[in-house]
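RECORD TYPE: inverse folding
INPUT: structure tokens
STRUCTURE:
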């Protein structure tokens, strides 16, 4: 993740430096949507979810928010949501909130019966939509077979700008000395992309799928106007993980340079890992429709829980440290063996995400039994349990063990008390408690996870109050039954 680039975008966006911005889209009465709204809190956002959760529907609805500056390129709902013999679309409301400078306005596009109804005057903005997953290779596209067989010469050529050719080289991890699009003497309306590498020039008829789609994308993005809305469906298609990461970093840079807003859909953890938590939007199927969760971890956002395990209860926590803390607490109960086989403890992200999952679980909006557990330093509105203590788990465990003189840890780590106690107490001088276990691990030659598991296990033996353990055990056992 490019932290510096993201922080620049965050600060500039908060300062209102994106003069045109689509704030939210709400869909009611279309493809299972019943009024849910997606907010776009960051200039580059990614929508993630299982197949069929409605990602593409939201992208297409977003593309319809504006009248394009070039009227012939305007996207209409009738372009995407077509009446067929099998599908009759009516009773639809698409609601939008948009910003133009300091002015915020809301409007609807409706289809009460047979015709779509639009606002009297639509806001203008350049809109571009790319469906990378459905981009055909050139040799499979209509009309290009004739060019491949009959072309004898070029009648024109158009080179990719050097800066964007360099971005293309960086994203795909190989050097291209030239990138261009040529028109042959066979068809003046169809361009063929060509890339020059160390062994010569190759056309899109023989390029790899990733080269093919990324070359097409770069051609469009080099000339995309400032303040445009750019929508890309399945942005990771045909790209290996490193190329996915580099593409997202490029799109972040492009967004800031040209003040464009970018909305993506993805199934890739590598894409999500390059975006800040406010830019990740998870569509989560529920018992009464799709739920929308902001800020979920990439791992949780892309996990297919029912394909890997079939627990009777999902327990949502903030992070890996909270997962280990809770598991060790439950394991210290004499009746834990059966309980732990019946549940899965899942880190989902920061406290606000845990709170959202707790609310959904309490209101029976998830298709599986679940409960949420916040760290002890986070309050709850009644839909979540809390881990022991009133501070972050690391602070609770380290402080309690220190007060007892670090019991039994010298034997468990195999290090003399003088050195070990120094390592432990030195780490506590670091203001960021999340670093403590890795700092100790560096000194005792163990992973931070191993250090944390040892400390938590000993804390459960030496410090955990029996009543606190029994109450937490009972709450989780009750949630199963």
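DESIGNED SEQUENCE:
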């Amino acid at each position: 993740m490019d932290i510096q680039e993201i922080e620049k975008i965050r600060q500039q966006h908060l300062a209102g430096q994106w003069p045109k911005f689509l704030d939210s889209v709400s869909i009611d009465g279309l493809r299972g949507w019943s009024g849910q709204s997606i907010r776009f809190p960051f200039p580059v956002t990614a929508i993630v979810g299982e197949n069929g959760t409605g990602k593409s529907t939201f992208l297409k609805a977003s593309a319809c928010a504006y009248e394009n500056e070039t009227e012939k390129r305007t996207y209409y709902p009738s372009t995407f949501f077509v009446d067929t013999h099998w599908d009759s679309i009516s009773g639809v409301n698409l609601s939008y909130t948009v910003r133009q400078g300091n002015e915020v306005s809301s409007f609807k596009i409706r289809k009460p019966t047979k015709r779509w109804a639009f606002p009297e005057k639509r806001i203008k903005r350049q809109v571009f939509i790319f469906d990378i997953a459905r981009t055909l290779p050139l040799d499979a596209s209509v009309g290009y077979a004739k060019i491949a067989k009959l072309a004898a010469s070029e009648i024109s050529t158009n080179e990719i700008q050097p800066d964007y050719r360099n971005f293309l080289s960086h994203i795909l991890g190989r050097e291209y000395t030239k990138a261009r699009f040529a028109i042959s003497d066979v068809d003046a309306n169809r361009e063929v992309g060509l890339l020059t590498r160390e062994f010569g020039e190759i056309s899109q008829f023989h390029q790899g799928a990733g080269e093919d789609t990324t070359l097409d994308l770069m051609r469009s993005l080099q000339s995309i106007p400032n303040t445009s809305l750019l929508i890309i469906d399945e942005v990771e298609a045909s790209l290996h993980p490193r190329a996915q990461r580099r593409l997202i970093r490029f799109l972040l840079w492009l967004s800031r340079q040209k003040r464009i807003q970018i909305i993506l859909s993805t199934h890739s953890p590598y894409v999500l890992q390059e975006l800040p938590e406010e830019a990740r939007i998870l569509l989560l199927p529920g018992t009464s429709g799709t739920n929308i969760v902001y800020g979920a971890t990439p791992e949780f956002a892309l996990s297919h829980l029912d394909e890997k395990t079939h627990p009777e209860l999902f327990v949502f926590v903030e992070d890996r440290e909270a997962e280990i803390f809770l598991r060790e607490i439950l394991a210290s109960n004499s009746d834990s063996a059966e309980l732990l086989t019946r549940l899965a403890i899942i880190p989902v992200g920061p406290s606000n995400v845990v709170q959202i999952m707790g609310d959904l679980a309490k209101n029976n909006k998830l298709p599986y039994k679940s409960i949420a557990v916040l760290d002890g330093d986070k309050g709850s509105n009644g839909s979540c349990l809390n881990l022991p203590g009133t501070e972050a788990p690391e602070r609770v465990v380290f402080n309690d063990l220190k007060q007892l003189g670090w019991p039994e840890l010298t034997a468990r780590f195999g290090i003399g008390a003088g050195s070990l106690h120094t390592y432990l107490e030195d780490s506590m001088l670091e203001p960021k408690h999340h670093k403590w276990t890795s700092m100790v691990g560096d000194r005792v030659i163990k992973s931070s996870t191993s250090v944390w598991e040892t400390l938590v296990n000993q804390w459960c033996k030496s410090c955990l109050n029996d009543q606190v353990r029994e109450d937490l055990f009972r709450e989780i056992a009750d949630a199963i039954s």
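NOTES: Residues 393-462 form one domain.
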